Amino acid sequence: MAVNATINDLERAYKAHLSFVKGKSDSELLLKFYAIECGLKHLYLKNKKLNCTDDFSKSEIGRKFGYGHNLHDWARELKIPKFRFRDYKMKESDVKEIHEYLRYGVPYSPSDFDCLLNVYLGILESNGL
Q1: Nearest to residue 66, comparing CAs of 37, 99, 104, 98?
Q2: How far apart are CA 128 and CA 15, in angstroms?
Q3: Which residue in 68, 71, 12, 10 sits closest to 38, CA to CA?
Q4: pTM
Q5: Residue closest to 113 by CA, chosen among 33, 14, 31, 16
Q6: Helices 26-48 & 92-104 angle (0-180, nearest 10)
Q7: 66-120 pLDDT, tens per residue?
Q8: In sequence order, which residues have a C-beta less than 8 Å from that of residue 7 and are 6 or more positions away?
């Protein structure tokens, strides 16, 4: 990760990004996605008793899959039970693809994406964010 973010930076970013999400426009879904990414990284640092994203290199996560945008990798790393995601029909590759569509403004069909993001938000809220 090029920028070193502290656990507090990630929590602030999570809350700041979410504060702009009022609907389901592409931009709002992208902000929600990034808020969740920040929240999951915050939770990972907290659980591993690490201080900042530079510390990822001290843990298995950096060697495993880097520090990327894959929410499912973070969920696996955080050992979030799979049953929490049983109600959505999206494949992991769909999530990555939709993230790219949103980021680059390419039209797409969102299907269950917002629903999936709401599952992640529920998990983060149940963990104190």
Answers
A1: 37
A2: 12
A3: 10
A4: 0.84
A5: 33
A6: 120
A7: 667 888 888 888 888 877 777 666 666 667 777 788 888 887 766 677 888 888 8
A8: 42, 45, 46, 50, 51, 52
